[in-house]
Known about the structure:
Blueprint: H1 2-10, H2 30-40, H3 48-77, H4 86-100, H5 115-134, H6 138-152, H7 161-171, H8 177-210, H9 221-230, H10 232-246, H11 255-274, H12 285-301, H13 313-328
Amino acid sequence: GFVNDLLRFRLGLPIYAPPLENQSTVYTPGSPLLTGWVAALFSGSLDIRLLRAVQFGYVILAAAAATIAADRLARLVAPDRYRPSARWIVWWAPMFLMVAIDPLFNPYTPTLNSDGLALCVSMIAFLLMTQQALAPRAWHLVAMAILPAAGFFVKQNLLSWIGLFSLYLLVGGQLRFRAWLTFIGAAVVLGLSAMAAAYWLWGPDFWFWAFTSYAPKRISLPRSGQHFLAAGIYLALGMAAGWALLGRPLEGGDRRVMGAWVVWLAHLVLHAYTSGFAWALNHLGPSVLISAVWIAVVVVSGWPRENQFRETWRFAIGQGLAAGLVLGM
């Protein structure tokens, strides 16, 4: 697993052993290699405690990215209600950190596993999308094209962000059709290039463990449905957040907010489906953290303006969603 990859790299052995030896992980090795490199900056020895500290640092970064993403969405959705302040950070940051280590959906993020860095990459991807929604820049599109290919070296399923970014740009109406197709083409070429580079670096054994070893597995639709229902509290609150935010005229928002929300729903459905080949729910980890971001934003949208009574239906919905999340956790 994680430590085995790091040890083989440090000893100069191939990271991916032949299939008959059964000594390799089914994930790309970006997370253990990066963790080992960061740990080496502080200590020359292979200290498990230091490795775990670095690993938990990814989780903290994921929670920080979620907090910034919530800030960006709140600026879009409710500019006349939201004022960046410590009161929101004090509430958001611990809540997102709790979701990031949820023992049901994120059981492996604090451990020596690729999930911690994968969660961090997913939240950076979502943050990039919200930043693009708030203030579009050309470099955002370049980063969106590059990030899935870079994420592939952390975990193969991060390539799914090619489709998710494309969906966001389509629903959000960000690009003309030809530019949209150009973006997809560039992202796909970069993704294929990342796969080719990995094959060149680690050879046929890498291809077997990262792809061929999954071939005998079958996705169980009943199990996928069970996992989807297990995330019911996050799904219900996320859907309610979408209804509260998108079911009325947005205060400064537009189709980009709709695009970001649709991407969250697509991410949740996609990963609930793909989780059907195993019993663990960790594939849904990033989805539930993004759900928490939407819940935080709808609370902001229902927050009373100055000199406004709090007995408004939007404030009641916001507080109900916040209470529901706390009770659900």
